[in-house]
Design brief:
The chain is an alpha+beta fold. The chain contains 14 helices and 32 strands. The termini are far apart.
Length: 664
């Protein structure tokens, strides 16, 4: 052992104890480090209430006391360099607590790699990788994501596809990379969002109950294998968003809980530290070192793994002290309120620091309440997120589309209400994994009617999602029209694509994404009220909605009309802002998608006959349980001739003009 080797400087200790260190992953954990020409690994771990700390591993036959670490002053950090320890070797810390000398075997909170569950050790690893995504990163900086098309394909890595010939196992990161990138690219999504990839002991938690916050799950490979997957996606023009879980952590004994014999990362009082919904522990956001841990973790994924965004899970559970608790089961804040002041401060700090370091990424909040200004800057009192999931839209729209079309007119406000608040936040419109599990049925299964009507309903639901202002998210399997609920132990039902209706649905998703990316009107002003206008939101009796989407250029106007009944609407008059030929971009009832083929033969002519408050109008066919998208004709070009370029009028012409005689 050597104790004269350290990566920690005085500034590191100060920032760590202050709660503002962003790069602790470069200092703590296990770092392969040659010293005087000899291979070895430097270990450093925070355990301020430990009496002794040891490192044990495969190199020492797991002897728990052979390699003691030394306390680094009063910082609470223990460190030491062990010769002969190389990459790939598993290890744990043996911690002897001051509290009665109790002993605990713990995984490394800063480990970059872990043993594959059910094994619970950490693994020595480095983070070197030869990236090839420079062009992607450069392009990311050129234009704000708010003004770009953003359609997200949400994925659980372990159940996207499985190898039937090999025990029905999940694909590895490297096996997944080319096949997955090709599929996402063919669908036209701009980004993927992975359910948490960080190491987690229980596969059925989908990654939301973590033990290894800095380790991509070893179920699918090494950190470099995960980097290869990200690099492959970037080279194919696809961004990567990670689900990030700073709201809670698992109770498994080798994890963060009771780490040094005391409640180090979590609150001691169960009214603050225990999460009743998930039987997990809640971070103590008021502790400086815990904030440094979490901030460094977020920074790590954006920095080391080139991640393009973080979707923060369960933000509401962080904001409210009484979340899922009855009276007497929670402790009010210092003002007597239910707001978690430390968590609010942490989230603001998180967003401030991430956007300061990476101004071209996005942070997205999964926040299910009406907490104000979630996606507004911190300097005006907001939480500072770039975007927020519109959970209200998701629930209202799914409740509406689950109704038999006969009754939809009585629930019309379910699909119009969101425009009352649509610009209060920068919204993402999700159709997420949470809506296709736990007895809720698949999206296709939620739709009413016979099989033809179910598919038609689902195509119209997707059309309405893409027509509304806000970015888009669709969970894997929804593109093929899965009949069964999502099962994390099974694969997406790819075999369904042999059937025309399922193949047609996937082609509809492809074409929606294509038109969405091609038409600035559908994305450029998602967060501005100038980007949307109802043509008619009051036709409840016929369950028809019509709307205009507009871009920043005068020619960028798209009309979308949705018919939520199986009755075709022929000669349906729609007011529009411009006369001329409106080109039909998409028709969900086209035969290629599995529809009946009722449409408008490629376009409709609008005439100077006002309707719906617009100067012009046109009569079109709206197919049954269908949606149509039209592109406006170019704006008339008005050429104003400068006075200096106008021909001079002769004296004879002036005399004719005064006499009212036409000029010759």
């Amino acid at each position: 052992m050597r104790y004269d080797v350290s990566l920690l400087k005085d500034d590191d200790l100060y920032l760590f104890n202050e709660g503002s260190h962003l790069r602790l992953y470069e200092k703590l954990g296990a770092h392969p480090l040659p010293v005087d020409g000899e291979d070895g690994t430097l270990f450093a771990v925070w355990a301020p209430n430990a009496q002794e700390v040891f490192v044990m591993g495969s190199w020492s036959d797991w002897d728990p006391f052979r390699h003691p670490l030394r306390a680094k002053g009063p910082s609470g950090i223990w460190e030491g360099w062990i010769p002969g320890v190389r990459q790939g070797m598993p290890y744990k810390y043996r911690i002897v607590s001051r509290e009665g000398g109790r002993q605990f075997d713990k995984a490394d909170p800063f480990a970059f790699h872990a043993e594959t569950p059910p094994q619970t050790g950490s693994v020595v690893a480095d983070l070197w990788y030869d990236w090839g995504d420079a062009d992607w990163l450069a392009d990311r900086r050129r234009r704000p994501l708010s003004e770009r098309p953003l359609s997200i394909y949400e994925v659980h890595l372990g159940s996207w596809a499985r190898v039937a010939e090999d025990g029905y196992r999940s694909l590895s990161y490297r096996e997944l990379a080319p096949r997955f990138a090709a599929h996402v690219r063919s669908l036209g999504f701009t980004h993927v969002e992975f359910l948490p990839v960080m190491e987690h002991p229980f596969f059925g938690s989908w990654g939301y109950q973590l033990t290894g916050f800095f380790a991509p799950s070893s179920r699918y490979g090494t950190p470099q294998d995960f980097m290869f997957l990200i690099d492959t996606l970037h080279r194919n023009g696809i961004g990567v968003i990670l689900d990030w879980v700073p709201s809670h952590f698992t109770k498994d004994g080798h994890g963060l809980v009771y780490f040094d014999g005391t409640h180090l990362y979590e609150h001691a009082d169960p009214r603050q530290g225990h999460h009743p919904d998930w039987d997990t522990y809640i971070f103590n956001y008021g502790r400086h070192e815990v904030r440094s841990f979490l901030l460094s973790n977020a920074h790590y994924w954006l920095d080391v793994f080139h991640i393009d965004g973080l979707r923060v899970d369960a933000v509401a559970s962080m904001l409210y002290l009484d979340y899922s608790r009855q009276q007497g089961e929670w402790i009010p804040n210092k003002y007597g309120g239910k707001e978690n002041l430390e968590a609010i401060d942490f989230l603001r700090r998180f967003n401030t620091e991430m956007y300061r370091s990476f101004p071209d990424v996005v942070t997205i909040a999964e926040e299910s309440t009406s907490w104000p200004m979630v996606s507004r800057p911190t300097y005006v009192g907001g939480l500072g997120f770039g975007m927020k999931w519109d959970m209200g839209w998701m629930h209202d729209t799914l409740e509406y589309t689950a109704q038999d079309p006969v009754y939809r007119k009585y629930h019309h406000n379910k699909v119009t209400f969101r425009m009352m608040y649509a610009y209060s936040e920068n919204f993402v419109l999700p159709l997420s994994h949470d809506e296709v599990v736990h007895g809720k049925s698949s999206l296709l299964g939620k739709m009413p009617g016979d099989e033809w009507q179910k598919f038609a309903n689902l195509r119209t639901l997707y059309a309405y999602q893409y027509a509304q202002p806000g970015k888009k998210l669709l969970f894997m399997g929804s593109e093929v029209g899965s009949w069964r609920e999502w099962n994390h132990d099974a694969s997406v039902e790819w075999d369904l694509l042999q059937f025309p209706r399922h193949a047609g649905l996937m082609r509809w998703v492809q074409d929606l994404n294509r038109v969405y990316r091609e038409q600035p009107a559908l994305f450029e002003q998602d967060f501005s009220p100038y980007g949307f206008l109802w043509v008619d939101c009051h036709d409840a009796d016929q369950s028809v909605l019509s709307m205009l989407r507009t871009g920043k250029h005068a020619d960028d106007i798209v009309l979308v009309v949705c018919n939520f009944t199986p009755v075709p609407r022929r000669d349906y008059r729609i007011g529009v802002p411009r006369a001329g030929r409106w080109t039909e971009l998409l028709n969900s009832d086209a035969e290629v998608y599995g529809g009946s083929g009722l449409g408008n033969l490629g376009g409709v002519d609008a005439v100077d006959w006002g309707s719906h408050g617009q100067p012009c109008s046109m009569q079109l066919t709206v197919p049954p349980l269908g949606a149509v998208f039209f592109k406006a004709p170019p704006a008339p070009v008005v050429v104003e001739v400068p006075a200096s370029a106008r021909p001079e009028r002769t004296a004879e012409a002036e005399a004719d003009a005064e006499a009212g005689t036409p000029s010759r």
